[in-house]
Amino acid sequence: MTYQDFLQSKIKRAEYFGFEIATEDIHTSLFPHQRDIVKWAVKGGRRAIFASFGLGKTRMQCEALSQINAREGGKHLIIAPLGVKQEFQLVDGPALGMKIEYVRTYAEVEACQSPFMITNYERVRNRNLSLNQFTSISLDEANVLCDFGSDTFQTFIEIFQTVNVKYRFVATAVAMRNRFKELIHYAGFLGIMDTGQALTEFFMRNSEKAGDLKLNPHQEQRFWAWLASWAVFIEKPSDLGYSDESYVLPTIEIIYHTVNVDHQNAGADSWGQTRLFRDAALSLKDAAREKRDTIEVRLQKALDIMQQEPPETHWILWHKLEDERHAIQKAIPEAKSVYGTQEIEEREELIMGFANGQYRIFSSKPQIAGSGCNFQRHCNNMLFIGVDYSFNYLIQAIHRIYRFQQQHPVKIHIIFAESEQEIIKVVDRKWKQHNDLLANMRAIIQKYGLSHQAISGEIMRTIGIERQEVRGKNFIAVNNDCVIETQSMPTNSIDMIITSIPFSDHYEYTAKYEDMGHNDGNDGFFGQMDFLTPELLRVLKPGRVAAIHVKDRILYGNVTGLGMPSVDPFSDLTVAHFRKHGFIFIGRITIVTDVVRENNQTYRLGWTENSKDSTKMGCGMSEYVMLFRKLPSDLSNSYADEPVKKDKEKYRRGRWQLDAHGYWRSSGNRLMQADEISVWSVKSIMNWWRKYNASHIYDYAAHTQLSQELEAKGKLPAVFMLFAPVSHDPNVWHDVTRMRTLNGNQSRKNLANHVCPMQFDIVDRLIEEKTNPGETVYDPFGGIMTVPYRAIKLGRKAYACELSETYFKDGIAYCRAVEESLNAPSLFDDLELEEGQYLEPDYVAGELIKTIPSLPSEKEVQFDRLFVDASNGKNGGLQTETVSL
Questions:
Q1: pTM of the model
Q2: Which CATH superfamily is domain 252-436 in?
Q3: % of residues, the chain, pLDDT over 70
Q4: 468-663+727-816 adopts what CATH topology?
């Protein structure tokens, strides 16, 4: 396979798993929009039907399974929420000539005479039956899968990793729960794209907070088009060009009711400071407290509202807490309540009874009866006695009565406490996101219809890039695919390679197929690296070093199906890969990271979770620099063809012995006591700790005791590690300053941050250790040009390649700036400047910057020294000086 063949193989679309059916073969009771969607779904074989409430999702699912049965036979299963089976069994199934049997166990599946069956999500989650015997499966009200990490989703991920079900469908009216990323869970279930790969391809990760993903702006249009290739969004028949007659909804009135709370009981925060107002948005604990403390006033408000309507009015009362349910039953004995500890059959009987008009007042939680049920025949009034952040449950519950075939205006009353204002704002924001999603998807459907080929044209990425090159006195920077660029470089032309390779498919940096982050897991990533690594070996001079920055990856249990985080040993795979291509592995440098900050990003090392079961806890993940060497020409002494020599007068034996020793520590002197240092600031404690560790023998027991005592005194932060272990081993770097990257400059300039920039400390040490002044350092994954930036600064030459044009342009500015700062003359050089000549200021963090406004004819000149704080890049202040010329 050539490199171009490999890139072509990365192009993925939603595959066809089904077959063509003719329009005349579809049941005549289906409306035109329903017929079109059934044809599309059966041809795709694995598709999502996101049709608005009342557009006939039930009938479309039934007909799709009927068509598959007519062609392939077998058994076919519909999985639905509680209280929905009657719609399939009593209404839509018989209308299509289908007998749909309810099954609960494996034995009932085996004994069933009909090929069509229905069961509840709970039966599958509890593994009461096996899915191995089914040819097709359809998930009705599939939004249950949006609960990423829930028992239901986890079970289905495990099932479909091992069960080969050819035909899979999902159907729901609410495709999005909290954010657009929830939609990719459907893709994972259907087998369209691995969930982790889709997260990487379309979303940006927040490195400061676990699970916080945003749709990548440069991927947004591709995301919508990709989504439309396997999911149909339809709100009205007119979206597919048909008449909306009989699909006009009645009016709906959503009325918010606020009840007052007593702010005198606002309580105190975790620091003991008294709060001025009660606020449910502060924490889950606060939200639960507000719910409990306001039950009576909210219920009384509900009773007042109900009394304003005629006594024969039917009502649905939604609540969130069991205490609310008990209060409702006590205040309204007539209400029929459905709750979780009831037997499934009893719950279904009550739900069906209310749907058929047997009862006047119905009470339940939205997560129990808020999906799939049709209550519009006898009810048009609804009360939310309690609300939370779940927009999904809210919108689903509303559409139990606000749907096609509703004959009366609908009233929705939402009651909330004054202290829950922020929760309502969040729900309103999610509602807007939901409407935006529908607008985007409907626009695509209205433009392309259900034409898979037309939509696929929107998905295509470009292959190929127009090469750009910028040269300075000390650097060459190229915007290109690093594989193609490295192939064009001369053999044995590079003195050292320093790079941070993409961590498999963990991030994508561009929308191009050449992006190595755009691959199917480790196999795909190293498959593309197979074209680059031999070229890196070729261009590196004999005996010289390639330093590869890597980090092992965390695999989350809700993606792998293991239910717990696990570690992908990416660093070990990197060693195997480079050795396969001829590099000699000569060492591993460990870069210590902050375990507290890591937990804030991943939530996998929580103190509370450890208290429940420490066996599931791993440890903090260090970063590594893997050192590889190209064999020298002369193996008799193994010196590099162009060695990096050290002056023994400057690099003494004592230093070398310390640099070369192993990492051994033992217990000894005591630490200062907590009482002695608790009066210091956190910053002072941290500085003392680093200095103390570097000069004293380590005592683990004392270290632990000190941490615990300072925690009790409120001096142990929860957002970073105060007492990090300090290393004496030259191969374990504990003192890398994490914030010293070019991203600081990017932020100050309001430019896009690099998703994982290298720290200056790492690059500087490698360059100084393994190269001579004036030699060339190459980075095939240049990013915003950290490696060339530091190489130039340290008196080396640099060569870098970067695929992203945005990163490339930003990086060029840094390379030019540092080059100019090194070449710019100072007042103390032998200057030959004409009067009035102006030198532009150079804004390089940590450097003294001199600005000469002009050269007067006098013998003296005033100039300003501008100091920039290297820790944060902020202006350190001006100092005016007068100098004699």
A1: 0.57
A2: P-loop containing nucleotide triphosphate hydrolases (3.40.50.300)
A3: 67
A4: Rossmann fold (3.40.50)
